[in-house]
Design brief:
2 domains, 6-stranded antiparallel β-sheet, alpha+beta, 10 strands, rod-shaped
């Protein structure tokens, strides 16, 4: 914090007296002898103003002032940048209230992962546009979904949803997918322990029926 007790120095120039001949007037002592500066060995001259002496304490004031000025500018830049980001978010993402990052630590956050997820109940081939799924809950037309199994994955746009037939109409698929492939708004799994995102798993199971007597 800047020292509030600091007062302006009000620097003054040194002004020498000039004689009628246009030359500086040597300074004399009480005996009429010309005074010599003991440090420089040069003659001292009469002055109208001695000016402000340069010393460490005054230079340190200036040094600190430059430091705090730079700190203040850096803090102001950071604040302005934060305000710019918040204004951008409020303008581009209505209702987001300035939240733009998720720490992935499980804490309450205004950003929520869209967990809409379902299974394809019949194998499909490349070029297919209608997906028969286990459920259409959570899916909305004109939003993007990821379709993936253990071989392929691709992102497509939903063009229509039939809730009674439980089908999702999408753009023509580039790949074929197995029965049980996932259709998800996000195929991300959040690891709270390591605070990181990973790709969701797809897997199949072998089931054996055993008769119990």
């Amino acid at each position: 914090m800047i020292n509030d007790s600091y007062s302006l120095i009000r620097w003054k120039d040194i002004i020498f007296k000039v004689g009628s001949d246009g030359k500086l007037i040597p300074k004399r002592d009480s005996n009429g002898e010309i005074e010599i500066d003991p440090l420089t060995g040069h003659t001292k001259y009469e002055t109208l103003s001695d000016g402000t002496r340069i010393k460490a304490s005054l230079l340190n004031y200036m040094d600190e002032g430059i430091l705090y000025a730079h700190k203040g500018i850096d803090e102001l830049k950071t604040l302005i940048r934060r305000l710019q980001i918040q204004l951008e978010l409020d303008g581009r993402v209505p209702g987001n209230s300035g939240t733009f990052a998720d720490p992935l630590d499980g804490s309450t956050n205004k950003i929520k992962l869209d967990k809409a997820l379902t299974d394809i109940i019949e194998a499909i081939t490349a070029g297919t546009t209608t997906l028969k799924v286990a459920s259409v809950d959570g899916f909305i037309p004109f939003t993007q979904v990821t379709i993936f199994d253990d071989v392929n994955n691709e992102d497509v746009l939903i063009t229509a949803i039939d809730t009674s037939a439980k089908t999702i109409t999408v753009q023509a698929l580039a790949f074929g997918f197995k029965k049980g492939a996932k259709v998800a708004r996000s195929n991300v799994n959040i690891d709270i322990t390591n605070a990181e995102m990973g790709v969701g798993d797809w897997q199949t199971y072998d089931v054996q029926l055993v008769e119990v007597v």
